[in-house]
Structures are given as C-alpha cells and as structure tokens.
Write a structure and sequence with these properties.
This protein has 9 helices and 8 strands. It has about 280 residues and is of the alpha/beta class. α1 runs parallel beside α2 and α5 crosses α6. Bound molecules: manganese (II) ion (3 copies).
Length: about 280
C-alpha cells in the first residue's frame, strides 16, 4: 500500500483537543503512515508523540507551526524534519512562547478592564500546560456565562477588530525560515489559500519565501475546493518549491480537517518527503 502522509496537525500542547499520544493513535486509525505533529510555536509534544509512534508503528516526522509576518500580515510557516535538539531552534521556540505569553497577558488585562475577572487563570485552565490562545479565552467566556457560544466570544470579544484581537509582533518570514533550515529542516508555507491574497500577492510571498530558503508550500491543506491543489502546484513549480500535504487537524468532529483527510498531492509537484530521502 502507498504511504499516506499527514504533515500538519495539532495537539493540546497548542490549540488542539487531543494529547500528543491520542493524535498519533487517531492518525494510525485513519490509515496515516507518516505523521508530523505541528503545534503552534512549540515542540513540547514531540517527545511524547515520538514514543507513541514507536508503540503504534507509524512514522513520525519532527514538526512545528511557527507564527511569522510578511508585509504586516500573519503568515504561518511549518517546519518539518528538523533536529529537535538544535539549540538555536530551541531558543527561537522559547522566544515565540514568551511572545504568546505576553500577548495572553495583554488580552487578559483588556478583558479585566471590561469586567471579566481572572481571565488569564481561567484561560490557562484549558491549556494542559501549553500556550494560552484566544480559543482558551473563548471557552472561559462561555464558562463564565459572559457569552453563550464560542463563536459569540469571538464576535464580541476576541475576533478581528475586538478588544482581544491583540497583534503579536511576530518575526519576519526570513528569520523563521532560517531557524528551521539551520536545524536541518524544511520550511513549508502553510495553507496558502487561507491568507485570502490575490494570486499576484501570493506569488510575491511565495517568491520571497523561496528566496530566503523556503523548501515547500502546502499544496493540500485539509479538504479543499476542486482545482485549488492544481493551482497551488503550479505556483510551487514556478518558484521551484516542493509540495506538502496535511489536514491541519485540531479537534475530532471537523471532517474537513480530520487526520488523514487531505487529498494526495497532484503528480505535477515534487513531494516534500522526496527531499528527505536523498
Ligand atoms: Mn490552530
Ligand atoms: Mn495555521
Ligand atoms: Mn495549523
């Protein structure tokens, strides 16, 4: 049987619902044969996922999803197949974690001024030790009865333009790509269609990403509209980048980003895993 790759997913070490072990087991149940756990700005889950992958008999590739910025816009860069013991990568991860913490503190202060007490502690209680993000604040707002649903929490408090929409000063893409490549890994531009850029702008981003050492773009991210993978494969080829594929799984019950749901890469693009077998 041909291998099945899922090179983008999350555990409760960032904003996913399952533990690293549960993610590995679920991936195997869904016929994934090669998995990368790519939590936001942390490698905390990787050792546990690795141990579980050995028990389960599934291939695990080291992974992370870094936050960065390009032309003032948040852009996510997945790092794959790097050396997790690389000390400058570990330093970089710490600085990202600190940036997330100070952002969470600012959000909590704003919510407290709006009359919502203990927001930081409340949000933290949902994290299992990982970084606090807006989804955790959303759950706290629901629990406190401030709003009745998660989507209301975003609409009124946390979404774009609301008090909890605190911009982080993420590093530029060149810096993040450098962290990954210097640790022997491949930098992958995550879910290009999610940025809602024009094709011209996306090509400019992809070109600059390739120029600073990027290795691949996610040609397939979860269940996509027909034709998108083919278009992204063309962009990958235009800038001599490989293609990657991942579900962006966070929680069970979302079939459009379930583990192993991502389509196969179009045959026109070089798979990112080919870069690793040389
Ligand atoms: Mn996420
Ligand atoms: Mn992302
Ligand atoms: Mn993701």
């Amino acid at each position: 049987m041909a291998p099945v790759y899922d090179l983008h997913c999350h555990s409760d070490q960032s904003d996913g619902a399952l533990s690293p072990e549960e993610v590995v087991i679920r991936a195997a149940e869904r016929n994934v044969t090669c998995l990368a756990l790519t939590d936001h700005d942390t490698i905390n889950g990787l050792a546990r996922a690795k141990q579980q992958s050995e028990r389960t008999g599934i291939n695990l590739v080291a992974g992370i999803e870094f936050s960065s910025q390009w032309m003032g816009k948040n852009v996510h860069i997945v790092g794959l197949n790097f050396d997790i013991s690389n000390s400058s990568l570990q330093q970089a991860v710490l600085s990202q974690e600190r940036a997330r913490e100070s952002r969470a503190e600012i959000i909590a202060t704003k919510l407290e001024k709006a009359g919502i007490a203990s927001a930081l502690e409340g949000a933290k209680s949902y994290t299992n030790g990982g970084a606090v993000g807006r989804p955790h604040f959303a759950r706290y707002l629901v629990e406190q009865g401030v709003v009745s649903t998660i989507s209301q929490a975003f609409k009124r408090y946390l979404g774009a333009g609301k008090m909890g929409d605190v911009k982080s000063n993420w590093p530029e893409i060149a810096e993040v790509v450098g962290w990954i490549t210097q640790a022997g890994g491949t930098a992958v531009l995550a879910h290009p269609a999610k940025y809602k850029m024009t094709r011209t702008k996306l090509c400019l981003l992809t070109e600059q990403f390739a120029d600073v050492g990027g290795g691949a773009i996610e040609v397939v991210s979860g269940k996509q509209p027909v034709g998108l993978a083919g278009n992204l494969a063309k962009i990958a080829n235009q800038f001599k980048l490989a293609g990657s594929s991942g579900s962006d799984f966070h929680v069970p019950g979302q079939p459009w980003q379930e583990l192993g749901c991502a389509d196969r890469l179009p045959s026109t693009v070089q798979p990112v895993w080919d870069l690793w077998s040389r």
